[in-house]
Amino acid sequence: MAEANGQRRSVLVPEAHALGMLAAIRSLGQAGYRVHAASPRKDAIGFASRHCSTRSVCPPLGSDTYVTWLRNFVRQSNVDAIIPGGAFLLAIEPWFEEFQPLLPISDSRSIVYRALSKTEVYEAFCAAPSHLRLLDHHPPTVIIARGQHPHENHLTALGPHLYLKADARHADGAVDDLLLGPLSPREAGEAVLQAHRRYRTVLLQGAVTGRQMGVTLLMDESGHVLAQNCFHDVHDEPTRRGTMSLRRTCTNAVVVADAIQRLRHLQWQGAAMLEYRVRDSDGSFDFIELNPRYWQSLHLDLLAGIDFPRLQMTWFEGAELGPIPAPRNVICGDMWPGEISRMLEIWRSPRFSKRQRIRETLSFIRRVVDLHVASDYSFPGDRLVYCHRVAEVFRKWLRIQ
Q1: CATH number at residue 179
Q2: Are 158 and 256 within one domain?
Q3: Quick check: 294 and 103 in contact, CB under 8 A?
Q4: How far apart are CA 166 and CA 144, in angstroms?
Q5: pLDDT recorded at residue 173
Q6: How many structural domains compose the chain?
Q7: pLDDT tier at 322, thresholds 50, 70, 90
Q8: In which domain, by residue range, is 296 found?
Q9: Percent of the chain having pLDDT more than 70?
């Protein structure tokens, strides 16, 4: 319910610079909540939304002054709930129990912070009962702690192309999550040594093929599915830039069932997106990673009729959700800069042939003029954000040049 005792409920969105949080601002603002957008960045994209009731530039998340600012803001603005992003959860980890009553997620510190760590999630899957078969659809993976020096032959067993991942939770000091790749086994060995200078443990994962697919879920405290959606990357040729910059709703009961089983094993409560690679040829798939916070492609879910932020708040407030509609067929993209960055990579990378470049360029032009392709930024009732985004991209390009 967006109102309590005649007053609009007050919700803080603390990472308003993130695309997923822009979607949350729009969802909750349309639902009647009083939305307070906050970010350490003055140019946060969420500030451009007409659905913000207030806009606050806060101290950097993780700084010594952030939690003091947060306490004061929650008290002065009578905040009823906080929409937690990953950086926010890391910033409040020592004070999790203090702010937990305002968070629409699990009240268990161990459950919440395990989900934020790729290494701990993998360890949980390794420890799962064998009948769950959580490693059957998983890339070859190894966890390497600081002080361990894997031999190149051992890394070769993971495959010819590897990805190195490290979690901010396992870092010395305030650094972001790390993702490197694709790397050869020899490059990966050197990257591990470099990463161990900042991270106490890293994860190496063999590359897998297939189209990217995402499963979005809202789970309650009993492991019941309150809402779900599924989408895949429209592009069958992956690029390092513009990842999932154009996506379409789809159905895949087998992958959705796998995602539900993984979240139930992790005892996750709240919203999450699980990323997969699915082979079109035979339907086989591999789990890639868990995003236990609002995801970059959330606008597609909203346009498909699966309003995760509103539904999550309704569940958090203990109100009746009612029947959830089947997702509408939607194609949605990030033109600025996702699709454009993807095209630049295709034209610059030697791995794309001239024929591929021409084919992809023609497809790009068709999508630009196709009115059925929705935009993450040009959202119904809030379309001026698109102009803000275009201007922001041009300013960045001018600074680079």
Answers
A1: 3.30.1490
A2: no
A3: no
A4: 10
A5: 81
A6: 3
A7: confident
A8: 209-401
A9: 96
For residues 197 and 272, state if they share a domain.
no
Of 161, 187, 206, which residue is a domain's last?
206
Domain endpoint, select from 206, 230, 256: 206
At 178, the amino acid letter reads L
Residue 194's identity, in one-letter code, is Q
262 domain residue, yes or no: yes
Tokens of 290: 């868990």
Is 287 a residue whose pLDDT tops 70?
yes
The DSSP annotation for 245-294 comes to SEEEE---HHHHHHHHHHHHHHT--EEEEEEEEE-TTT--EEEEEEE-S-
Contact status, residue 294 vs residue 20, Cβ threshold 8 Å? yes
Q: Nearest 5 degrees, angle CA 43-CA 44-CA 46?
A: 135
Q: State the number of CA atoms in the 13 A half-sphere of 13 facing the CB.
A: 33
Q: How many CB atoms lie within 10 A of CB 43?
A: 12
Using the predicted structure, report yes or no on whether residue 242 has a pLDDT greater than 80.
no
Q: Give me the numbers of helices (H) and strands (E) for the chain, helices first please.
A: 14, 17
Give the 3-state secondary structure of residue 171.
strand
- 120-172 pLDDT tens trace: 999 999 999 999 999 999 999 999 999 988 777 789 999 999 999 999 999 99
Tell me if 119 is assigned to some domain. Answer: no
Q: Closest Cα to residue 315, out of 229, 245, 220?
A: 220
* CA distances, 21 to each of 95, 260, 293 (Å): 22, 23, 9
For every residue of 339-379, DSSP letters joined together read IHHHHHHHHH-TTS-HHHHHHHHHHHHHHHH-TTEEESSSB
Instruction: Please answer whether residues 141 and 123 qualify as being in contact, where contact means their C-beta atoms are separated by less than 8 angstroms.
Output: no
